[in-house]
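Why does residue order matter? Because the sequence determines the fold. Keep that principle in mind as you read this record.
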Amino acid sequence: MPFPMRPFVYWSGVYNAGLSLLLLCPPLYRVLGLNICAPIWGWLIAGFLGFTSAVLILAARDLRRRASLVYWEALLRYVAALLLIPAGLFGDIGLIATPMGLGDLAIGLVYMFGLPKELGISHHALLCDRLE
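Structure:
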C-alpha cells in the first residue's frame, strides 16, 4: 500500500499550526528547552509558521492542483533543518532545536520524494508549477 500524501500534508500543516501557537508563548517554549533571544523573533517565526500551516492545510484539499506549494515547502524545511540542527548542537538555542530540525528534514524528504511518486509528476514540473 502506498504512503498517502494528502493526510501527511494535512497533518504536517496542523503540526505547523501547533508550533506557531507554541512560539507565541515564551514561557511555554522555554519550559521545553527552546531559547529564543527575544520574544519578537518567536512571534515572527510564529507568523511564518501560521502562514505555511494554512498553505499546507489548503493544499491538502486539492493536492493535485496545489502540489507545487507543498514541493516548495520541502525547500523551506531543508533551510529550517540547516539552521536548526547546528544551532541546537552548537548554539544557545537549546538542544530541542536539533530534533526539530531533523523532523523538518524528514518532512521535506517525504514531500520531495512522495509527491512525484504519488502524483506521477516530475520534480521539474513540481518546481515550476507545471502540473497540468
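The CA atoms of residues 79 and 105 lie 9 Å apart.
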